[in-house]
Amino acid sequence: MKIAVTYENGNVFQHFGHTEQFKIYDVEDGRITGAQVADTRGSGHGALAGMLSELKVDALICGGIGGGAQAALAEAGIRLYGGVSGSADEAAAALLAGNLAFDSDVRCSHHDHHGDGHQCGEEKHGCAGNGKSCG
User: Which of 87, 90, 100 is nearest to 79 (CA)?
Assistant: First the structure.
């Protein structure tokens, strides 16, 4: 099994479509046996699901994610655990332990304002864990 986490500076990156890296965890017998950081090489929203599929990822942990990306992940057979924040390593371990806190209804509801200087994770846009995540 492989788990991918949107990744930046050790933490779960909060905007799936703009992540520059994934941390990929290899799992055997319910334990993490290895991890690597994969660069997205500038891939955008649609190409990221394909990249994860090519890497044989089974599950994705992320902050926010939009509906189109959710559909692409579902089509690729990748389970989604959205609305997660904090340490990437702790999130992967929590998923394996069966106690990861995630939002099964995570949605990005403000794709139309990305030209206004918005940065995901800023409290003023509700991206920092209160259910209105970016994607």
Answer: 100
